[in-house]
Amino acid sequence: MTINETHDAEIASWVASANEPESDFPIQNLPFAVFRRAGSNESFRGGVAIGDQIVDLARVAQIGLFSGLTQKALEQCAGAFLNGFMAMGEEAWSAVRLALSRALRTGAMQEQALAEALVPQAEAEYDVPAQIGDYTDFYTSVYHATNIGRQFRPDNPLTPNYKWVPIGYHGRVSSIGVSGQSFPRPVGQSLAPGAIQPDFGPCKRLDYELELGIFVGQGNEQGKQIPIDTVEEHIFGICLLNDWSARDIQGWEYQPLGPFLSKNFATTISPWIVTLEALLPYRVPFVRPESDPQPLAYLDSIAQRAAGAIDLQLEVSLETEAMRRSDLPPTVLTQTSYRHAYWTAGQLVAHHTVNGCNLRPGDLFGSGTLSGPTLDEAGALIELTVGGKQPVHVSPDEARTFLEDGDTVIIRGWCEKQGNARIGFGECRGTVLPARI
Known about the structure:
This protein is an alpha+beta fold and 437 residues long. It is built from eleven helices and 26 strands.
């Protein structure tokens, strides 16, 4: 992929809201989702965001504005999931993006026809954009790993393998939901400090984790590795992700095999998937400290070193029930950047397949909690509050060590720099309900 006409910051759209400076969805973005009109019996189908509108891709395919590969790709977007479109590969993804970019520009001949395919985002509801066959959650922030490790192993916070191998675990697909998801507080076993046997009951240390979701496009055959030099041909795009975590349950269960009930009760993703092509202007070098081990050959390439990282800004806000009652805005808890990740998205894919594991279109990776180098950039409450020892104030009358019932966590992400269009991700929102016990 290379910078092309779709990235030109001077392009404007006949959809006026797309030209607003703070819009997440200018014509240079064009992310994908699955939607329908809220409260309707319509089928879910693929859509592309432009300003405050959605281009209904099923309708566009029906109208027949385009032909060839673009039309075939649009037909794959007409169903309830985007797996078929994801499987078509980079050429098809770029063809649709280019065709829509040209048709949505000011003065485009297709304006009248395409205007009939617009649906206001305010009238839409969303579903998970793909049938997710498998979900792997990684651990790619060295700052998060160090902060957490220090709470349990003050003298040796990082495990010996951390700087050599992307660490991950297999997550649960069935509980992945789209932004707006609400879920009951999980219950399970936990061992209180000093206790000799565990208790059972509602989680007392419920947390969020600021992450990105990485959707696989074209997969690979079982036994066939995806080499690092071509790995990004297999990444469809990126969304926001919240890997909700029950810290007290996690602390009791995670040895020797890792997270289980502490993680599988809910994972929330944003509806919009931003393509790697849209993010090209925000690619930055992947750099390791010289004193750290450098990636092994199968995780290393000239392209990854030159532009493997993404300068993507991330923000977490909290809204409590009391704040809603008082009509107070959410409180920003943290801001950080994806450029601090210790492993790139491409390295995660290459590592996942190096043993012959076969990925499929629509598979999802979690980046792992994304924390920056300072504590105010921490991507989870367990870090911000130093294990619950230092509460954070979220309003004049409220503080939090961990999440309480009724709390809503909102994750936002965007890329922005002078001379380029702002590329936004929308939001990833989830709410904690009381436990069912």
